[in-house]
Design brief:
The chain is an alpha/beta fold. Helices cover 35% and strands 19% of the residues. The two termini are 33 Å apart. 42% of the residues are buried. Bound molecules: S-adenosyl-L-homocysteine (SAH).
Amino acid sequence: MDLRSLSFDELKNEIESLGEKSFRAGQVYEWLHKKCVLEPGEMTNVGKQLKERLLAGHPLDKMEIARLQESKLDGTRKYLFLLSDGNMIESVLMRYHHGNSVCISSQVGCRMGCAFCASTIDGLVRNLTVGEMLGQIYAISRDIGERISNVVVMGSGEPMDNFDNIVKFVGMLTDERGLNISQRNLTISTCGLVPKIRELADMKFQLTLAISLHATTDEKRRELMPIANRYSIREITDACIYYFEKTGRRITFEYSLVGGVNDSEEEAERLSKIAKPLHAHINLIPVNPIKERDFVPSKDRNIKAFQNKLEKNGINVTIRREMGRDIDGACGQLRRKVISGTV
Ligand code: SAH
């Protein structure tokens, strides 16, 4: 296992088994998870011998910035990281008045197959390790020299398809010995793997769960999202009720508006009926067109009408501010371009 993926207890056991004093675990852990070191050489008060022996069994994976694009519109930064095995992943930094928010990837590629998404076109390559998920946040924090206050797991990949690592990641990210990010400032987005939503609920984390709904009937949802062949909207909403009962946290539904596909007022009406009993928040996202597919975003007036309808029905709704449109902001676009050699 890579060094950044070891929990505090795992690190302590490892250091003790090397015959070293256990207080060294606190030092090393602090370097890794509070000071966010990216190179072993930066851990200056750790002896050379311990470092070498530790790294022999647990290499410190690199998070190399292969490419960086900054939006001229809103300062959003898109990072392309080169991983130790040569794979590349994307992360995004969004600067808000209330703080810095980082959107991370949870897998290299994705196997969920959503019709409008660029991340899934070449399928799943592999899960990211805990250290690679944390590393995206650490590397960005180091790059800008500022604290990160919010994290959203909404980049490439399906977090519930990398469940054990996500659970460990949540623990380490919100641990006071690390970045100590509040669970309430963490959002995990899923296309709706129902058994995993229930498992996550049982852990009683105080994080926000976002469900990518994108349709109001199973039939329409199946056209956009293959996962709808496995789980119905009803099964998802039942799991959402369970999640709320266990955690007391309201669900967010993400709804990407695709012109002429899922943006009618009738659909807004049905969406209201789905969201109302759950007191769910709805986040409308004008679909971000990708060149491999011919989906178009809804017209402004349709977006407005959709939103109005929801509001009239007493639903809490926001339209996602489009950030970084000029820098391939949509999931997986930049990685694809670089891999295929078009940039
Ligand atoms: N697999 C997870 C998280 C990654 S995607 C999930 O499905 O939720 C994050 C969000 O962006 C999801 O709601 C996804 O459906 C949406 N998305 C992906 N590609 C998009 C695009 N081209 N335009 C708008 N939203 C998109």
